[in-house]
Design goal:
This protein is mainly α. It is built from eleven helices and no strands. The protein is globular and about 50 Å long.
């Protein structure tokens, strides 16, 4: 329970914690951001890690001059692309065996099934669209690997999606994160970002489930 409280506190005060990391560790901050983003996109056991909000927060500090926006864009894009690639490889190698198991202690089946429904509805575009949807983002490349999506197609969607996702939230943080209203309500802004980014995906999943339901006479 204590770990959950700490994580919630970390998410709600991400600006404070990131500021502390920058002050105490300097350039090592880039390595920490890379690791967190890589784990969030590359490991199906870590969908709880912050993605959108972390990039947004990093953008706000880049606007203040505490971090280099160009280095951030290159490094975080590389982390997200590499993470998805690893996740795809795991799904291709082990996914079908894991999917057939009734219980998976490190993966919530409902998350996997939700992503599968989204993938069935959107096909390869899922790799791009899922970037903007928490949790689904982590499972999308894994499901693509299970479904044996052609690697070259996956790479194209992966690179485009990674650049678009990082570029979007980094820009939002850079240009809007330091507005007075946003700074005074930073926690609410982060929650709004997560909600807004997840909304289209949740609607897509719901539509996919409705299509899958058999018609009643």
């Amino acid at each position: 329970m204590e770990y959950i409280k700490l994580f919630i506190d970390f998410m709600l005060h991400l600006d404070v914690y990131l500021n502390m990391v920058i002050q105490n560790y300097g350039l090592w901050t880039y390595a920490l951001l890379f690791i967190i983003l890589f784990c969030e996109t590359g490991l199906v056991v870590a969908p709880f890690l912050p993605g959108d909000s972390l990039i947004f927060a990093a953008g706000t500090f880049a606007a203040l001059g505490a971090l280099n926006p160009i280095v951030l864009f290159g490094l975080l894009s590389a982390a997200s692309i590499l993470g998805d690639t690893v996740n795809y490889g795991i799904g291709r190698a082990l996914g079908s065996q894991l999917y057939q198991r009734e219980k998976m202690w490190f993966i919530k089946r409902e998350h996997l099934e939700r992503t599968q429904a989204f993938y069935n509805n959107h096909g390869g575009k899922t790799i791009v669209l899922a970037r903007f949807i928490p949790i689904v983002r982590t499972f999308a490349p894994f499901v693509a690997g299970i479904g044996n999506m052609k690697y070259l197609y996956f790479v194209a969607y992966n690179v485009f999606g990674g650049l678009l996702w990082v570029g979007t939230f980094l820009s939002l943080g850079y240009f809007f994160g330091n507005l007075t209203f946003v700074k005074d309500n930073f926690s609410l802004a982060l929650l709004a970002i997560v909600f807004i980014s997840a909304l289209p995906g949740l609607l897509g999943i719901k539509q996919g489930k409705n299509k899958a339901k058999p018609e009643t006479i």
